[in-house]
Structures are given as C-alpha cells and as structure tokens.
Amino acid sequence: xxxxxxxxxxxxxxxxxxxxxxxxxxxxxxxxxxxxxxxxxxxxxxxxxxxxxxxxxxxxxxxxxxxxxxxxxxxxxxxxxxxxxxxxxxxxxxxxxxxxxxxxxxxxxxxxxxxxxxxxxxxxxxxxxxxxxxxxxxxxxxxxxxxxxxxxxxxxxxxxxxxxxxxxxxxxxxxxxxxxxxxxxxxxxxxxxxxxxxxxxxxxxxxxxxxxxxxxxxxxxxxxxxxxxxxxxxxxxxxxxxxxxxxxxxxxxxxxxxxxxxxxxxxxxxxxxxx
Length: 275
Fold this sequence. Notes:
TIM Barrel, 39% helix, alpha/beta, 11 helices, 8-stranded parallel barrel
C-alpha cells in the first residue's frame, strides 16, 4: 500500500435508478480526484423483509409498494455494462457493496473489489462467499459490537476494515474517531473511515489518525429525493475533501528522528549563523 489515501465516492443509490445521474456523479468523482466510485447492489426480493413489500412509499414516480420502489432503483446488467465501461473510459475504479449471494455473483462479472456493508457483517455465509470472489474485500463496522467485528474479521479476513457509524447523518459526538486506533492496534488490516456526518473536518481527522481509505456518500444536490442525500457531500465539498486529504498525505511525513527540512536551511543560516 502506498502513502496515498484511497478515496471512495459512494454513489450508492443516490442515482435514483437513473444512469445519466450516475454518470454525472462519476464525472464529479473524477474531477475531484477520487480513486473509486461505489454503488450498492442488492436483489430486493432477497433483501427486503416480506412484511415490508407492500408498504406504500411516496416516491418521485408516485405512490408505490416498497418492493417495487426498491426494484425501480436497481440497475440491471445492461445498465451496469454501461456504467463500468464509462468508469473505465474515465479512468476511475468502480465497485459495489453487495447485499446478498446473488449480488456477489452478479458483481463478480465486473470487478474483484467488493464491500460488505455494516448491516451484513454478521452474515458469515455472505462474508465467505464475498471473500472467495474478491481480491480486495472491504467491510464496515457500523451497528456492530466488538465481538461481531472480531468474528467478521476472523471469518472473512478482509483487506480493509472501515470504522463507521450507521446513523444518517451521524452526530459528531457519536463518531468515536479513537476507535480507528483500536482497529489498527488490534487487527493486522488496513483501516478506513466511512463517514455519514455533516461536514469534512472529522474525515480529515480520520486520515491524520492513520486511515488510508476514506469513503463518503456523494450527491449532485442534497435536496434531491432519497434517504441518503442529506448526509452526502455535494460536488464542491467533494473537491475540498480530496484536496484536503492529499494535503494531509503530503504533510504526514516520515516521523522521527527530527531532521532539518530543506525549507529550514536558510532560516538556520540567518538565525543561528554559520555553525
């Protein structure tokens, strides 16, 4: 792993089932300098509890059953063909969170990078299947006890473990950035941070604390319809985020022992004289 923090722009479901919106979000991520965009792939009939299927939901397309809404915002294979080709042409990585076994199989046609979302790290069957089908596997730790996190790491042996709080948006006093150090000290794994809070400061702090992966939801406009839009970063904010992370990467340096930097040499001569 190099010293450059990997930045994931989480498109998730903020495209609202529209490939053109997805492409515009990909463009935003490219302009900002992100390393990856990430989507969410699920089979609604596998993931949505049956008691929720016929619940009515007000949507931009009118009132519909919840299961129909979830199906409407899922991309099919032809749409993912178009999305992955677009990402390839724009020279940005693309992968997805996978929510069920069918989605692991589906996404393995496109990429060997996959993520298990916080909601599913207790599903050890899914963890094992994802591990078998991915060369780079990421998990998040939201909504989980330490025992559940430890078990998931033992089962899946992920390449990256992301500290996250699954509240959308997350109150600052519940983020617990010090858990980053706990993860790094306890487990032999790259540590990341997936933020759902307002603002950028805590994400900058996570990078300075040692996270070498960062994930933030992105949106074209927080006023757009959708459950994740409000806790997402808009284009201008994303540019500021990546620029700040790259500055932190450069500023971290190599640690001790203390050395005189090139910029200090002239000051040394003028303030201490020739010694």
